[in-house]
């Protein structure tokens, strides 16, 4: 055998051996049911009145929080009625307490595809009370860099948190949610639904 062929064959065999010795499994996706610290659970957080709830880092493992926030690296989105934008303006979006609830952009894309943009189906998917958006023109707001707007898990103290809010960065229907600071006009894109 020629020496260069033998060296090449040896390199290929060593590469295959090296590849087979490495663990190529993905780490498990952190689940909310195993992310609670100490004696915490959703009911204990919800028993605390709005305005007095602790930060999620008080009751959730850091690895879970990091994973949830990583879902927003590709962007964040939310739906809003065009009337709300017309009434409150488009210069800065969000609540006066410097918060705005958002979902992961890729989840918004998937949800809109699943529902074929049907408003009744969207309400079901997002846990919006039936009929709330019927007959209203909706706009989609996309934020390409939510990290620049302090993306974080909601505490449940935000103005936009209602009686359907659940701790852990998940909507009641399972989609991921986070909160960002108010959004200046140059940090978002509005598009009609």
Walk me through the structure:
The structure is a single chain. With 193 residues, the protein is of the alpha+beta class. The chain has helices spanning 3-21, 42-46, 62-70, 82-88, 105-115, 119-126; strands at residues 76-81, 92-93, 100-104, 138-143, 177-180, 183-184, 189-192. The protein has one domain. The N and C termini lie far apart (67 Å). The model has no long low-confidence stretch (mean pLDDT 89).
Structure summarized in a few sentences:
The chain has 193 residues and is α+β, with helices and mostly antiparallel strands. It has 6 helices and 7 strands, in the order H-H-H-E-H-E-E-H-H-E-E-E-E. The strands form 2 sheets. Strands 5-3-1-4-7 form a 5-stranded antiparallel sheet.
The percent range for helix content is 25-40%
Number of domains: 1
What is the helix/strand order?
HHHEHEEHHEEEE
The largest beta-sheet arranges its strands as 5-3-1-4-7
Q: Which stretches of 5+ consecutive residues score pLDDT under 50?
A: none
Please give the radius of gyration in angstroms.
22 Å
What count of helical segments does DSSP give?
6
Relative strand content: 15-25%
**What class would the helix/strand composition place it in?**
alpha+beta
Largest sheet: 5 strands, antiparallel
Number of strands: 7
How does the overall form come out from the CA principal axes?
Answer: globular
Q: Indicate the mean pLDDT.
A: 89
In whole angstroms, the N-to-C terminal distance is 67 Å
């Amino acid at each position: 055998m020629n020496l260069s062929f033998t060296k090449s064959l040896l390199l290929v065999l060593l590469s295959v051996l090296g590849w087979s010795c490495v663990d190529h499994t993905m780490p498990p996706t952190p689940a909310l049911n195993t992310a609670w610290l100490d004696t915490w659970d959703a009911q204990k957080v919800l028993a605390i009145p709005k305005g007095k709830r602790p930060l999620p880092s008080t009751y959730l493992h850091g690895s879970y929080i990091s994973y949830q926030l990583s879902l927003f690296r590709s962007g964040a989105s939310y739906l809003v009625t065009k009337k709300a934008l017309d009434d409150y303006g488009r210069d800065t979006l969000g609540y006066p307490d410097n918060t705005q609830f958002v979902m992961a952009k890729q989840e918004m894309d998937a949800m809109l595809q699943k529902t074929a943009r049907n408003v009744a189906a969207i309400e079901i998917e997002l846990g919006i009370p039936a009929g709330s958006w019927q007959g209203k023109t909706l706009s989609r707001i996309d934020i390409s860099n939510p990290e620049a707007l302090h993306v974080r898990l909601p505490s449940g103290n935000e103005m936009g948190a209602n009686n359907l809010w659940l701790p852990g960065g998940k909507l009641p229907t399972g989609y991921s949610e986070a909160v960002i600071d108010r959004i200046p006009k140059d940090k978002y894109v509005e598009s009609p639904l």
